[in-house]
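Re: that backbone. Tokens:
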């Protein structure tokens, strides 16, 4: 039988079923019966085994439980707390899509609270000890995320909504091609006649933010357009974005591509501080197609993530991993779509006229002389 991964023995290793059996003076099968089928044992034998389990701190491993039940039809998902003043409509929509996909497959989501401050193992070991979950869906994946390696080492199936962004890729994941989304936004703005297109993103080191910035840079360089002085970074709240975008507007940007709809809303506020109108004076494109985007005035052009498809793919990959634990990893990168609305307008009369675009010979992945982060 598999050994517990949670309770150390007096010799420093994990407590095993055999060790409990020796303490209780019974066979390992009797210990297994005490855990899985207690009705098969006499009362005094069951009490003796349970006393040994309590004294040694033995807890059955997830693998042992899976052997018994084959499938619990439960999928664990840790919910990260949202900082005050920050909304998370994308993750709300993802969780709804994920729950629907799991329900259609005959599974239920088991939610638990994750500790604040970024990805951590808090809650995962406890859940494995207390519940027989079949696997986990991870979100908010980031650099130095310890969860993938920890789960893989223990043979626990999982799938990530998001790439790991650094180091060796571990396990299965589903992600949205953010670079493709911002590239499409820039291409659309160039077709409208814009040449001074700025990018408002998050601080460097954010995998998702860097990916979206790469798409903006790639499209600008392809058309031979400058990026120096046209990138700013902000934290993920409206007021910080309102302040961060001011240098971009001072630099003569006629359009701003933002890494999120929240940052785009900060751009709206900065424009109105100047007596300017979003869309009419400066085009603005967000990212995520949040509920707010369609009700702003003017309505916000944005990049929509295919969250329903993400939810379905996460469940599909996780169930495939449960069925074939040793199979090769599978990674799915889904395309977002540009939602054109009133805020993506042609440049005003004071903006420079269209010019014939041409390819930039600089590699999009290498830092060029025209690139600067503010």
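Recovered sequence:
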């Amino acid at each position: 039988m598999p050994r517990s991964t949670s309770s150390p023995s007096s010799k420093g290793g994990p407590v095993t079923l055999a060790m409990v059996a020796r303490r209780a003076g019974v066979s390992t099968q009797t210990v297994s019966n005490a855990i899985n089928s207690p009705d098969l044992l006499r009362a005094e034998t069951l009490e003796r085994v349970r006393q040994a389990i309590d004294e040694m701190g033995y807890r059955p491993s997830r693998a042992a439980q899976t052997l018994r039940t084959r499938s619990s039809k439960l999928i664990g998902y840790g919910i990260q707390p949202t900082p005050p003043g920050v909304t998370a409509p994308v993750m709300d929509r993802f969780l709804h899509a994920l729950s629907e996909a799991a329900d259609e497959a005959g599974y239920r989501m088991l939610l638990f609270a994750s500790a604040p401050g970024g990805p951590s193992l808090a809650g995962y070991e406890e859940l494995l000890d207390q519940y027989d979950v079949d696997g986990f869906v991870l979100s908010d994946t980031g650099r130095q995320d310890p969860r993938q390696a920890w789960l893989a080492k223990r043979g626990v199936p999982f799938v990530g909504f998001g790439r790991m962004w650094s180091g060796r890729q571990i396990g299965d994941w589903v992600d949205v091609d953010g670079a493709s989304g911002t590239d499409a936004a820039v291409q659309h703005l160039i077709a409208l006649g814009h040449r001074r297109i700025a990018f408002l993103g998050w601080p460097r080191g954010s995998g998702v933010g860097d990916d979206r910035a790469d798409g903006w840079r790639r499209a600008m360089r392809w058309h031979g357009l400058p990026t120096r002085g046209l990138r700013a970074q902000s934290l993920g709240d409206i007021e910080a974005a309102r302040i961060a975008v001011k240098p971009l507007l001072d630099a003569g940007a006629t359009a701003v591509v933002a890494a999120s709809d929240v940052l785009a809303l900060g751009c709206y506020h900065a424009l109105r501080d100047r007596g300017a109108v979003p869309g009419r004076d400066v085009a603005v494109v967000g990212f995520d197609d949040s509920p707010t985007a369609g009700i702003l005035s003017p309505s916000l052009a944005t990049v929509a993530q295919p969250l329903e498809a993400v939810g379905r793919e996460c469940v599909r990959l996780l169930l495939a991993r449960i069925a074939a634990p040793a199979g090769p990893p599978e990674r799915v990168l889904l395309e977002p779509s540009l939602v054109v609305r009133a805020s993506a307008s042609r440049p005003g009369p004071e903006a420079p006229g269209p010019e014939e675009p041409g390819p930039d010979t600089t590699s999009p992945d290498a830092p060029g002389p025209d690139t600067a982060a503010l």
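The mean pLDDT is 84. Residues 307-323 form the longest helix (17 residues).
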